[in-house]
């Protein structure tokens, strides 16, 4: 059996180069083995659009660790298996920007699964937005909340 690290990030602004929240759910042997969630101080400005979308603002992340401080906690998750994300190119791109911004060296490439791409192959005639996919499968979702988005990708149909 494989280990899957399902993750989702929220961003503070349109540049999508910093993280304001991260949710991680670890799947081992087909079961949820661990999970992690944290707000992240992106050390940059927030756009009103992103704050409305995610509910996260500069006051929300006050006192939260920055990405470099948080990396020590999340690196073991991110290195433990195949990464899974809904629109993985986005989430991995934001992760890469953060790693580069803080001078953190990591893998030059990672194995990943994109659930948007998988959804397009399996269900080509429906919308592949995470909330629409969750509605289709009857999975509870508090959309654009990193902990909910990552755990929804691990949920069984209800």
Per DSSP E runs of 2 or more residues, the count of β-strands stands at 5
Q: Approximately how much helix is present in the residues?
A: 25-40%
Main beta sheet strand tally, sense and closure: 5 strands, mixed
Q: What is the residue-averaged pLDDT?
A: 95
The assigned structural class equals alpha/beta
Going across the biggest sheet, name each strand in turn.
3-2-1-4-5
Order of helices and strands: EEEHHEHEHHH
The fraction of residues in strands falls at: 15-25%
Measured distance between first and last alpha carbons: 24 Å
The total count of helices amounts to: 6
Shape, per Cα inertia axes = globular
Outline the low-pLDDT stretches: none
- Measured on Cα atoms, how large is the radius of gyration? 15 Å
Say what oligomer this is: single chain
Write the layout of secondary structure elements.
Blueprint: E1 3-10, E2 21-28, E3 31-39, H1 48-54, H2 67-78, E4 82-85, H3 88-101, E5 112-114, H4 115-122, H5 130-137, H6 146-152
Parallel strand pairs: 1-4, 4-5
Antiparallel strand pairs: 1-2, 2-3
Question: How would you describe what is shown here?
Answer:
Helices cover about 35% and strands about 20% of the residues. It is α/β, with parallel strands linked by helices. The chain has a 5-stranded mixed beta sheet with strand order 3-2-1-4-5, sandwiched between helices. A hairpin with a 2-residue loop joins strand 2 and strand 3.
């Amino acid at each position: 059996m494989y280990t899957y690290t399902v993750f989702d990030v929220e961003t503070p602004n349109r540049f999508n180069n910093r993280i304001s929240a991260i949710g991680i759910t670890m799947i081992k042997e087909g079961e949820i083995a661990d999970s992690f969630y944290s707000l992240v101080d992106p050390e940059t400005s927030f756009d009103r659009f992103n704050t409305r979308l995610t509910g996260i603002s500069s006051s929300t992340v006050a006192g939260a660790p920055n990405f470099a401080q948080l990396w020590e906690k999340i690196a073991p998750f991110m290195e433990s298996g195949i990464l899974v994300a809904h629109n993985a190119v986005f989430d991995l791109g934001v992760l890469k920007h953060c790693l580069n911004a803080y001078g953190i060296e990591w893998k030059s490439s990672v194995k990943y699964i994109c659930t948007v791409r998988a959804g397009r192959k399996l269900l080509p005639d429906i919308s592949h937005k995470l909330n629409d996919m969750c509605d289709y499968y009857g999975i509870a979702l508090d959309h654009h909340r990193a902990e909910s988005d990552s755990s929804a990708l691990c949920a069984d149909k209800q």
